[in-house]
Structures are given as C-alpha cells and as structure tokens.
Design goal:
α4 (124-135) runs parallel beside α5, α5 (153-166) packs parallel to α6 and α10 crosses α11 (304-314). The strands form 3 sheets. Strands 5-4-1-8-9-10-11 form a 7-stranded parallel sheet, with helices on both faces. It is α/β, with parallel strands linked by helices and 315 residues long. The protein has a single domain (6-22, 38-314), classed as Ribokinase (UDP-N-acetylmuramoyl-L-alanine:D-glutamate ligase, 3-Layer(aba) Sandwich), CATH 3.40.1190. The chain has helices at 46-56, 71-82, 118-121, 124-135, 153-166, 183-195, 203-210, 215-225, 263-276, 281-297, 304-314, and strands at residues 6-9, 13-18, 40-44, 61-68, 85-92, 99-104, 110-115, 140-144, 169-173, 198-199, 229-230, 232-233, 239-243, 246-250. It is globular and about 55 Å long. The longest helix is centred in the C-terminal third of the chain and has 17 residues, at 281-297.
Length: 315
C-alpha cells in the first residue's frame, strides 16, 4: 500500500450504521426491542471518514489512531486497508477498540451508542511520535474533531508548528463543541484555525467557536487574522468563503438524500481532492459540494471520476 501524501489524525470506530431505522419521537424505550431492516459495517469517526473519502478520490492517505488488541481492532485495521487507507495505529492490550452503533430514521433523526476506550486513551506522545515520522513525506496534515480528542491538543499544536516549518499544508475541521469544553481549549483551537492553510468548519460550530452571530461576521474576523483559506459548510445551503474581500456562497447540489452520515467529512475530502489536483478555490468548493451530494445520495463512496461527471451533468 502506498504511503499517504495526506496524514489524517483522530478517533477511529467500527461503525454499525442502521439507516431507515424505525425511530419515532419517543426514541427507544427501556425493555423494548426495535428491529431495523439492514445495517452497514464501516470504519468510522470524522478523521476516518475523511481519510476514506480522500482515498476514494485518488489521494494516497494514512490514518493515525488507536485500537485495542482485540477482534474489533483487527476488523478496523482490515476495513481501513480495504478502503485504501494506510492504517498507522497504536495497538494496546489495555484498551478496547471503539464501536459506534448509529440508528438513523427516514427523517434524519438519530440515536448513537458508543462503547470502547481506545480513542480516549490515545496520548500526546503516541500521536506526535507516529505523525512526526511521516510528516516530512506528507503534503497535507488533517486534524479533525479536535474537541473530541481535546487532550491531544498539545500534540496538534506541536505538529502544526512542525508542518509550518516543513511546508506541509495544514487542514482543520474542528468538529462539534461539547458542553464541557473550556475557554482555554476554545482558544487553542482558534489558534490552530488561524495557523491552518485550509479551515473547513460547519456553520454552527464556526459561529460558536468565534462567538459571532453570522457566518459573514466570523469570516471577516478570521480573514483579518489569518493568511489561510476558510470555507464554512452549511448543509444544503452550500458553503461560504471570502474571495477578493467579498463574502461568496457556492450553492449545494440538489439531490435526493438517502442518508446524511459523513456529509461534512465528504465535503472536506472533495475540497482537498480538488485542491490536490490544482483547482482554484471556487472549483474546489464546488467539488466539495458535489462530493457531499453524491455521498448522501448513494450507497458507495464516490470516485474522483464520478464527481467530475456529476458536475458536468449539472452544467
């Protein structure tokens, strides 16, 4: 397997996804069995989803994470390899591989149950040791879901400094801000965002981190402080950025959605795949929107050629 030109770091799960699950407004009650029709077994987690999509879009990708020395750890390694992602995993006998069971109904409402301890036990030294060995040979460094792995922030800070020195392109998608996040942790991620070359938050997460009322206000604030590119994702409304000092929104593509799992991660991968191929900012955003549209409207991961053909059909 070819060593990755993109290095993705984050939490890793064996995902058991149950689409079209018969949930209602009452969810699942105690002592009640609710049976769905089907499930999908996939490697999961924001950084993993991004890595899988990048591989499907022809970017050689390496993922760094942690698993237990258990059956699920072996399965996760095999699932990553099957997806074309090089797994660079810390394996430990003292932890259990994270498993996530995601039930999603036809309206997009979901219930998630997670077990396992591997992600929580991943240490700063483990991450930095593995990543620093590969960083010089990588073109991109992707940091996803920072707030989920907040204890790794010191490693992220060191890696961003190293990446700057080595000329590696830094990509950040901060992820959801949980209730227990401190102001110090928020400020650390703000600094990571300002140091990044490509910053790809969702609109809600972006406004919450920067304490602004609108995406436009936040973009202007970040643009004044950063030399990088910021693109804010807003679901079916598309994505917004600043081009030549003007706030510009590239609309999403209209498709019939069959699920929404991994839409934001797919946008990130599509954007980077286009950037990797030398496309400009506008075309990269359009490619990200198209990749996300295909991801949520079909069962298989879209290939680079499929995205190109999809965009051509819209013109």
């Amino acid at each position: 397997m070819k060593q990755g030109e993109l290095l993705s770091i984050g939490g890793a799960y064996v995902d058991i996804n149950a689409p079209n699950f018969p949930l209602n407004e009452n969810g699942i009650q105690l002592e009640t069995e609710v049976v769905g029709e089907r499930y999908l077994l996939e490697p999961g987690g924001s950084a993993v989803n991004f890595a899988r999509m990048c591989s499907a879009l022809e970017i050689p990708t390496t993922f760094i994470g942690k698993v237990g020395k258990d059956e699920m750890g072996t399965m996760l390694t095999c699932l990553l390899e099957k997806a074309g992602v090089e797994p660079l995993l810390v394996a430990s006998e003292t932890v259990s591989t994270n498993v996530s069971f995601n039930m999603v109904n036809d309206g997009g409402e979901s219930i998630m149950a997670v077990v396992g301890t591997a992600n929580q036990s991943l240490t700063v030294d483990e991450v930095y040791s593995l990543a620093s060995e590969r960083l010089a040979d990588s073109k991109y460094l992707f940091l996803g879901g920072c707030f989920k792995l907040k204890k790794l922030m010191p490693a992220f800070v060191k890696l961003v400094d190293d990446a700057k020195r080595l000329g590696v392109i830094i990509v950040l998608d901060q992820g959801r801000i949980n209730q227990d996040i401190t102001e110090y942790e928020k400020q650390t991620v703000r600094e990571l965002a300002l140091a990044s070359d490509i910053y790809l938050p969702s609109s809600e997460e972006f406004m919450k981190l920067w304490d602004v009322n609108t995406v436009e206000e936040g973009l202007k604030l970040v643009n004044d402080k950063s030399a990088g590119v910021t693109v804010v994702k807003n679901g079916d409304k598309g994505a917004t950025t600043i081009i030549s000092n003007d706030v510009v929104t590239i609309p999403a593509f209209s498709v019939v959605s069959i699920h929404t799992i991994g839409a934001g991660d797919s946008f990130d991968a599509g954007f980077i795949a286009a950037h990797y191929k030398g496309k400009d900012l506008t075309d990269s955003i359009k490619f990200g929107c198209a990749t996300a549209a295909l991801k949520i409207s079909q069962q298989s991961l879209p290939t680079y050629e499929e995205v190109v053909n999809f965009i051509a059909r819209q013109n």
